Structures are given as structure tokens and as C-alpha cells.
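## tool: complex_structure
## caller: assistant
## args:
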Amino acid sequence: MTIRDTSDKATNSVSGRVLSRIRAHSDTLQLFGVLVVLFIFFSVTEDKFLTTRSITSMGFQLPELGVLSLAMMITILTGGIDLSVNATSNMAAVLAGLFMVKFIPKEAGEAQIVLYLGGALLVALLVGWISGTFNGLLIGYVGVPPILATLATMTLYTGISVGLTGGTTVTGFPKQLSVIGAQTLGGIPIPFIVFVALTILTHIFIYHTAFGFKARMLGSNPTASDFSGVNNRSVLLKVYMFSGVLSAVTGILIMGRTMSAAYEYGTTTYVLLAILISVLANIIPGFGRILDVFIAVLILQVLSTGFHMFLAGVRGSSFFKDFAWGVLLILIFIANYFIRGRRYQG
Amino acid sequence: MLNRIVKTREFIVFLILVALSVIVGLINPAFFSISTVFDTLRAAIVYFIMAFGVLPIIISGGIDISFVAIAAVTSFSTHMLLLKLGYEGGTLLYYLIACTMGLLAGLLNGFLVTRFNLPVFNVSLAAFTMWYGFNLFFIGATANFDLPAGTVGYYARFIITARDPFVGKTGLHVSIVYVVLIGLFIWWMLKYTTIGRGIYAMGGNREVAIRSGFNVPFITLVTFAIMGVLSAVAGVTQAFLSRYFNPVIFIGQPLDVLAAIILGGASITGGRGSVIGTALGVLLIQVINRALILTGIPVQWQRLVVGIILIVFTSIPALQERRARRIGHTTEAA
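## result:
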């Protein structure tokens, strides 16, 4: 596929510059357009959609999948995939949960509990970091294809969670934990703030560091990056570490919302949805915008909440949502084809 | 000749399979019984069929996960349709209707991929959520156990029966014949037809395949047609073997099937893969599952053990390949 270069002609005038800017961001604008259309559609058809309550509840629901999608997208950017994201977040939550249940003394004071909570969060992040490192070693150093390696570790990490809990749900956490999953800061849900912060952090990481540049180069052509002196193995290792830590954050968010931890939260649906978001955001090895992922997550949530209200009372309405996602994806692909057909040749 | 066989990826998988069987057999002699063989094959039947169905797509360089959804939507909607019509006959009509639907569903994927120049995986992901959603919302959300009179006995129709010292009378299900026929067909198609050679050429280098005169869009459509039809066969077969129709059948398993194919030596980026390797990969995963039950590992730790086994078994061929590459070339592609 060759890209017809329009920038030379266009940058001569101010209007041309604006136009080329718009062209360069047309994917983002298009996704944003879809989001706006859906938002207006549901706001008009559903009275309950454009209320503080429903907006806030969306703000609580979407960050889990959102952060998981970030963890997924950075691995796709390097030409890989991380199927173990959800297993990692559950394992991180289970271990952090067991830490709290086992070690927090019954008569601990407020300050002491907060200290232990901090410890539990550290445990979760550490678990995420270790599992990411293990993925990275398998993929970068042993040379197992990412889809196989992370499928195997998905089973392994889920297996650890099942083994430690015997398949049961871990509960009995101090109520201060719910700050993470159920409180707002200035009217904005805390999970949403975490999601936005991590989106910005990932953006800086991928687009404004030498490491991010290497990661994208590795994604677009591993052989070329190898010959350019990039240590492919170590870049892969770090990417999967980052993915693991982001997954652990998701685990913390789920734990904060449900006040429990189990091996089975999310399971395959979250993994496939995270991939679906990357596909919707048009993330391909070497290329992709973090902002697009952010918008894609919002689109999915608006659709989900919207259809939930739209079909309230209809039996199995949540299944219709799955159907609609599939149809919408296909429509977006086809629209993309026609829009890009004019921009790209071949 | 022997030297060439020993060096193949398929042979490594075969060795791993034998080694695992011996270890499990030493721990529990019950593993070496005719009933274990028959049961393992019976459990593997539908996975063989699905894996053979997606194999051409994988070899041509695409990754598909929609085959499980197509298996579910074709089998379940065929059943609900025939149930409504009061059908009481045998299995043949089920296969005919489901295969026609599967063909259409496969061709829909193929059409989207070829007409709009879309990545196979993206289309399959959309089809995956679309077909499961369609099944659950429009057809029905609960499993159905009312089988037509003509199909009730099908689950126990054996081609061979044997006397087993541990479980008594045991048999090999007749649908293993379909597996063999399908396997032979895919093998023949991949090896001896222009379409088959085109599939490998596409996976090796798409651009070169186009310039060499292969009709790439047509070949793509054929691979999707095969996938659709065989997914339908697998869906209906599984329903008859387990004696109920499930709207979300196989929903958690597309990755397991892909893992079996890749474990069997197919390259995830295309251009490489074989029917024998795929069959061995499917068998290996089934033996792992069976081994856990027979070796007496506590239930709660079984999944952990599967994970460890998978990691070891995916690492061995990867390390082997890495070494071969280092000897053959001076550089390596990550």
C-alpha cells in the first residue's frame, strides 16, 4: 500500500495546513464522529441517557475495560498480542486480596489500614510486573509466538488464582478500599481519573520517549529494527512488563468496585473486548493512536449503556448489544474502506 | 528421508505427545487402555474438524476466531428451525442445512475481506460477537435438549466396539470417519491442487502470489467457504455427541483451537502448516486434559499444571527453531 503524499502541496497555505492536519487525524475524527452520533442518538431517544446519574455510572463502568485495552494495545503495536491481560488482573487482585485478608489485624486503626491498603496495591502492581516480565521473557528471549505464549500464561495465571482460592471469591476487605472503585473526586469518578491519567501516561510513553519509538519501529518491521541496532528482545520484555502493570491496575479497579476478587471476573469477554477496541481504534503493528483507543472505549460504553436503556424490558437485551457491536464494527470497516480509498492507493 | 522427517516440527510434537503419554501411563496404568484411546478421540473429533477448517486460513496468512461462532449459530438455528417444523428424521438433513448456512456465513466473511480489503482477523472478530449475539438474541438463549427421534441414538453409533478391562464395553464413534475423510480432503487440496498451492503462496508472500498469477481473492473465498462448512459440521456433530444444542457452544475455545494448530507447526504469520501437525496438536491438547484427571492432581491445581505444560511445550519448538535459525543464518528476526 503506497501513501499518496499530499503534505507538500498542502503545507503551502494556512488552509492547506489545516486540511492536512485534518487528513492526518481523519481516523480520530471519524471515531469521534461515530461517538457523537451515537451519543446524540441515545440522548434524543432515551430520557434517562443524558442525566448525571447515567453519565457517572458510565464513568465507573468503562475504566476497567479501558485500562485493559491500553494493556492490550501496546502489545498489538509491537506486532504481538497479550491474551493474559485479564488473567493477570484477576491474579493481581486475588493476591492483593489475600494479602489484606491475611495480614490486616482485626483491631487496626484507620491509619494502619491505609498503610496496609498501600501495601496491597503494591502487591498487585508487583504481581502484574512479574507476570508481564514472564510474558516478555517467553516472547522476547525464548521466542514463543505471542499468541501462544500469552495463551499459555493466561492458563497459568488463572490456574494460580484458582489454586490459591480453591475457585472461591475472596472477600472481607476494609471499607476504605471502596474509595478506589466507588468514590468521586469533584464529581468525576476516581476510576475514570485513573483511566485518563494512564491514557496520557501511555501516550507519553509510546510517542515521546526513545523507548516508545523503538517499540513502534519493532512493530512495523522487526528485522529492520534489529539491523538498526535496536535490542528487540529487551524492548519486547519492557512492553509486556508495562502491559502486565496496566493489567494489575485493572485488577485493582475491579477489586475496588466489587470489593471482592476471583479468578473468573471478566474472563474471555474482557480479553476479546480489549482486542475489539484495538481493532475499532485501527491499531496495527507500528501504528496507532492512544487517543483513538480512548474514544473507542467511550463508543463501546455508550453503545452498551444506550442499548441497555433502549431495550429495557426486552428479554435478552444484553445479547442484542453483542450483535450490534459486530454489525457496527463491520459498518465502520466498510466506511473506512471508502474514506481511505480516496486517500490511499492500492 | 528419515533425517528430513526427524527435523520437522511435526516430529517434535509427536515426540512430546509420546513422552507425555508414557509419563502419564507410568503414573496411572489405566491410561494405556483402549477406552482411553477411544474417549480421547471422541473428545477430539469436533476439534479436529474445526482445526482442519481454519487451517487453510491460517496457512494463507489470516487469523480467524469466528469459526466457533459460525459453528454455534449454524447448529443452533438449524435445530430450532427443524424443531419448529416438527422434524423427526435423521442427522443428514441437519448437516445439509447447517452446512449451507455455514457456507453462507463463511462467504460473508470472505466477501468482506476480499471486497473491502480488510484484515481477516478484524472481520472475524466482528463476526464472532455478531453471530453469538444473533444466536442468543434472535434464536434463543437457553440450551435445547429435544432431539428428533431419528437422531437420538446417534451419540452411541460406533464403528468398532471393544472390551476394556477397566470400563467394560467401549466404542469408537462413527464420526471419526468424517474426521479422516475431511483430513484427507484438506491434505489433498493443500498439496495437489492449484488452490492449495496458492494458499501456501499467499501465506508466504501475498504480493508474489498475486504477481505469479494466483487468483488471490478467489482462493481467499474458498478458504472461508471451507471454514464455514466445516465449522457447521463441527457444531452439529458436537451437539449430537453431547445430546443437546447449545447457543454459546465453543464460545471460550477459539484460542485453544488456534493454539493446537500453531503447536502443530503452522506459522501464525502464514505460509507454513500441515494437516498431520494440526491433528497432532489437537491430540496433544486432549491428552494434556485427560492426563490431569488420570494422574490424580487436585482439581484446584489442574489449570495451573495445564499452564505449565503449555509453556514447556510451546517453548521447546521455539528454542529448537531459534537454534536452527542461528545455524542457518547469521541474523534472526524476532
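## assistant note: Chain B has a mean pLDDT of 88. The first helix of chain B runs from residue 2 to 6. Handing back to user.
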